[in-house]
């Protein structure tokens, strides 16, 4: 993890994970490659983060397939929707921090970054309401109106 200064936060410090998040844990990439994240406003290095290679994508896809065939498959659509709601609530509760990170990462004004995070919260809430409505089933009907 890297300690990053976020001047818009009250404590000013944030611990940024810098590894790949695969199979519910932060891991170093297979090839142990990394790249520098540059602050576009100052052109200074913010931190170095793990760089995903094709091998890492293969590891992530295998982990996703395993999860899909395992316990995740048994999670009901309603429960999945509740998880999306929980994620949206966590994002909303941490909106200032997420916006500060987004602003630092891409040089966007903090007010615009807050709008982006708020839009993501809304998007997650929207899709959470669909999780128990789309089940891959269709009813063949033919309707004719005079």
UniProtKB/TrEMBL annotation:
Q: What is its EC number?
A: 1.2.1.3
Q: Where is the signal peptide?
A: none
Q: Which GO terms describe its molecular function?
A: aldehyde dehydrogenase (NAD+) activity
EC supergroup of this enzyme: oxidoreductase
Pfam families assigned to the protein according to its UniProt record, in alphabetical order = Aldedh
Q: Which residues form the Aldehyde dehydrogenase domain?
A: 29-141
List the catalytic activities from the record. Answer: an aldehyde + NAD(+) + H2O = a carboxylate + NADH + 2 H(+)
Q: Which family does it belong to?
A: Belongs to the aldehyde dehydrogenase family.
- Specify the protein name: aldehyde dehydrogenase (NAD(+))
Taxonomic lineage from the root: Eukaryota, Fungi, Dikarya, Ascomycota, Pezizomycotina
Q: Which gene encodes it?
A: ALD5_1
């Amino acid at each position: 993890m890297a300690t990053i200064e976020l001047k818009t936060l009250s404590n000013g410090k944030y611990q940024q994970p810098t590894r790949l998040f695969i199979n519910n844990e932060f891991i170093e990439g297979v090839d142990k490659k990394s790249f520098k994240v540059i602050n576009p406003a100052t052109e200074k290095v913010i931190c170095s983060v793990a760089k995903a290679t094709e091998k890492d994508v293969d590891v992530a896809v295998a982990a996703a397939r395993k999860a899909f065939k395992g316990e995740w498959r048994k999670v009901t659509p309603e429960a999945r929707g509740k998880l999306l709601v929980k994620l949206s609530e966590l994002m909303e509760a941490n909106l200032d921090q997420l916006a500060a990170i987004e602003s630092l990462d891409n040089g966007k004004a903090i007010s615009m970054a807050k709008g982006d995070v708020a839009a993501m919260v809304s998007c997650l809430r929207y899709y959470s309401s669909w999780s128990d409505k789309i089940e891959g089933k269709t009813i063949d009907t033919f309707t004719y109106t005079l």
